[in-house]
Structure formats: structure tokens, C-alpha cells
Design a protein that fits this description.
Elements: H1 2-25, H2 33-111, E1 115-124, E2 132-135, E3 148-150, E4 155-162, E5 167-171, E6 178-183, E7 189-193, E8 204-209, E9 220-223, E10 235-244, E11 251-257, E12 266-271
Antiparallel strand pairs: 1-2, 1-12, 2-5, 3-4, 3-12, 4-5, 6-7, 6-9, 7-8, 8-11, 9-10, 10-11
Helix pairs in contact: 1-2
């Protein structure tokens, strides 16, 4: 009983003190309690500042997390818009490329009297270069063995095998390739062949060049038109090196094709007709 009585006295005393303090703090300037308020303000001032500081910290923290959430939402929205813009740019690039290919196709139609057909490359042999590859057109499209294959830059190769829906193409860098060519500057005739060592670099060679033939680095090489396969005047590439054969009268030159055989996607087949020969000129 004594303990309960003591607790009641403590609670009542605390309430009285609290009422007294509140009355002192809320008293007017002319009130008698003003003196008490001034006395109490000194020890309670740090407590008031602490309460205000905690309140401001809580408020700032709430605002901070609210701003973080808003920033995350804005960042997510910006990423979404960026992805949409990238997709739109990709579509624009694809359409531009398609239009460019159509323009080149029209140019080809004006350049050659034979019918031409555009093809996509759908497969290639192992390796980094398009030495031999498969196109998505075949005999049902009028493709024949030995039809020349070109792109906007120059000569690619010839059709080596034809199925109903697809065809296999052998490029000019292949070791079995042989093309009757002409030096654009001197108009001399030469033979362009694939080379087992040079093909890994995407290069070809001009073989058996007589010593009296004028040839220099930078000279352009084109098809001669003297074979039954390749029409005249198709750009093949340019000479990048001349090599003398020791103990022999002739020499050979290394040719860099105008076509980049590392990045082939689309080609054009010139439909010259039925199968002709074995590809040599």
C-alpha cells in the first residue's frame, strides 16, 4: 500500500509541475508567471532546440527520400524514352540503307544489259572472310552456275552451285578463282587469282605480268570482258604491292579488292544465262 501511495504522490507531483511549467511558458509579458518562465527558459532552451532540430531532420529526411523516389521515376522514364529513340534511329538507319540499296540496284540495271537480282547472304563457310558463302536465291529465280556476283563496290565472285532456293558463291579471293583482268591505266591484260596466303588478308594477286607491262602501286584493276563469265569494266581493286620473281623475267602484284570481304551482307547476281565453263578465263 505504501508503494502504491508513493507512486500516486509522484504522478500527482509530476502533473502539478508540468502544469506549472506550461503556465509559466504561456504566460503574458506582464504576468507574475513571467519571472518563472524566464527562469525555466534557460534550462529548457537546449531541449526546445533539440526538439526543433529533430523535427527539421525528420522533415528533411522525408523530403530527401521523396526526391530520391521522384528522381528514380524520372530516370526510369528517361531510360524508356532513350530506348525508344534508339529504336527509332535504328529504324531510320535501316530504311536509309534499304533506300540506298534500291538506288544502287537501279544504277546496276542501267549499267548492265543483263538482268540482275539482289540477294541476301544467309550463310558462309568458317573463318572471318566471306570466301565462299550462300545466297537466298536459286534456280527458281533464274540463277545459273557461273553467273557473276557483284556489289556496289566491285566484283565479288561467281555462282559455283545452284539449288532451287539457294546458291553457293565463290569469291575472287578463293584459291580456285581466276579472272581475266585489265589494268585500267595501261589497258594491259593480266590474270587475277586467289592465293592461299593472301586470302587470309582479303587480298588477291596478279600473276605472270610480263616485264614490258607498265604497272604501278595504285593502279586500278578491272574485268577485261574477254571471258564468258564476267562483263567488261567491273572494278576489281587496286595494286598495293609489286613483287619481282628472282631468276625469272616476269613478276606479280598484290591486289586489294574494292569489296570488303569481311563485311558482306548483300550482293547482286548478273544473270548471264546457262552454265558456262569451269570459272577459268
Amino acid at each position: 500500500m505504501r508503494r502504491i501511495f508513493s507512486n500516486k504522490i509522484f504522478i500527482i507531483s509530476a502533473v502539478v509541475v508540468l502544469i506549472f511549467v506550461l503556465a509559466a511558458l504561456t504566460a503574458g509579458e506582464n504576468s507574475r508567471m513571467n519571472v518563472v518562465r524566464n527562469v525555466l527558459t534557460v534550462p529548457l532552451s537546449p531541449l526546445q532546440k533539440g526538439i526543433v532540430g529533430v523535427s527539421n531532420w525528420v522533415k528533411d529526411s522525408i523530403n530527401f527520400f521523396r526526391e530520391v523516389r521522384t528522381a528514380r521515376e524520372e530516370n526510369k522514364e528517361l531510360k524508356k524514352k532513350l530506348q525508344q529513340m534508339e529504336q527509332e534511329l535504328e529504324n531510320v538507319y535501316r530504311l536509309q540503307k534499304e533506300n540506298e540499296n534500291l538506288r544502287k540496284l537501279l544504277d546496276f540495271k542501267e549499267q548492265f544489259t543483263q538482268e540482275i537480282v539482289g540477294c541476301n547472304i544467309i550463310a558462309k563457310d568458317s573463318g572471318n572472310l566471306f570466301e565462299t558463302f550462300t545466297i537466298d536465291r536459286g534456280s527458281r529465280d533464274g540463277i545459273s552456275v557461273n553467273d557473276p556476283v557483284i556489289n556496289a563496290n566491285g566484283l565479288v565472285g561467281r555462282v559455283a552451285k545452284v539449288d532451287l532456293f539457294t546458291s553457293k558463291v565463290v569469291s575472287i579471293i578463293d584459291t580456285e578463282s581466276s579472272v581475266s583482268a585489265r589494268l585500267s591505266k595501261s589497258r594491259d591484260l593480266v590474270i587475277l587469282r586467289g592465293d592461299s596466303q593472301l586470302r587470309t588478308q582479303g587480298l588477291c594477286r596478279l600473276d605472270y605480268i610480263p616485264p614490258d607491262v607498265e604497272v604501278a602501286v595504285g593502279d586500278t584493276v578491272e574485268t577485261s570482258g574477254l571471258s564468258s563469265i564476267y562483263p567488261k569494266g567491273i572494278i576489281i581493286g587496286e595494286i598495293v604491292q609489286i613483287v619481282k620473281n628472282e631468276g625469272q623475267f616476269d613478276y606479280y602484284a598484290i591486289v586489294k579488292p574494292a569489296v570488303d570481304f569481311r563485311r558482306l551482307e548483300e550482293v547482286v547476281v548478273i544473270k548471264v544465262g546457262a552454265e558456262q565453263g569451269n570459272g577459268d578465263d
